[in-house]
Amino acid sequence: MTPQFKAVGDQALLVSFAEVFSDEIHDRVMALDRAISQNPPVGMIEVVPALVNLLVSFDPCQTTHEAIATDFERYLTTLTLEKVTGTLRHVDVCYDASLAPDLEAVATATSLSQDAVINAHLAGEFSVLMYGFSPGYAYLSGVPNNIRVPRKPAAVRDVPAGSVIIADQQCLVTTLTMPTGWSRIGRSPTQILTGDPNHPFLFDVGDKIVFRRIDLAEFDRLSKAAHYV
User: Which residues cross the membrane (predicted)?
Assistant: First the structure.
């Protein structure tokens, strides 16, 4: 599987394995990310893995697009596709109707009861695939097949931080008040933004996520304790 290299400005290179996400492709992205992180090429500043590609930023005074691409090709010849188990993280979520405005619509679309949608979500095997769009937006794979719904035709504004949202096979816990076209099935008081400049987000790419159901009273208590708005 030969990746494609594309220059991004004068100090970054995009390495793409495919145009469509799959577990195999993402495993290759993460394997390359590990290889580069363990033995970074001269001039590299940062590597950012995504679903089917990764972006490498570098110092143009020390290296070039061509040199970075050559380094990457060398890594690919010895790439090991091993499964690395990330840290298990628990995220609280309340599915009360006041915090889950799209839960009924998801239930209707999937021909399930609302309780069945909730139970399916709680049973999902979620993994952090990447960060993107906004600070702390961790895209999770693992939404069970029976509750997968497409994005809405138009985004909804002012979706509050902590909203647990799903679209197709992905799930996300929002960190800011932002618009979204994903379905809101709950809300979490768990803080994803840590405030630690050395580790600003709760999750690392590759971590496993387990959702824990809480009631509205527990949500209110935890939200006040965390000052989560």
Answer: none
Q: Which of 98-112 are b and which e, b meaning 16 or more Cβ less than 10 Å from the residue's Cβ?
A: ebbebbeebbeebeb
Cβ–Cβ under 8 Å, residues 211 and 93 = yes
On the question of pLDDT at 228 being above 70, the answer is no
- Same domain flag for 103 and 197: yes
**Three state DSSP letters for 155-180:** CEEEECCCEEEEECCEEEECCCCEEE
Give residue 47's domain range: 4-76
The string of DSSP codes covering 20-65 is: S--HHHHHHHHHHHHHHHHSPPTTEEEEEE-SSEEEEEE-TTT--H
Q: Hey, which bits of 168-216 come out as E strands?
A: 170-173, 178-180, 183-187, 208-214
Residue-wise pLDDT tens digits, 61-91 = 999 999 999 988 888 887 777 666 789 999 9
pLDDT at 229: 44
Return the SS3 of 221. helix
Same domain, 105 and 191: yes
How far is CA 136 from each of CA 3, 40, 168, 193, rounded to the nearest angstrom? Answer: 28, 25, 20, 6
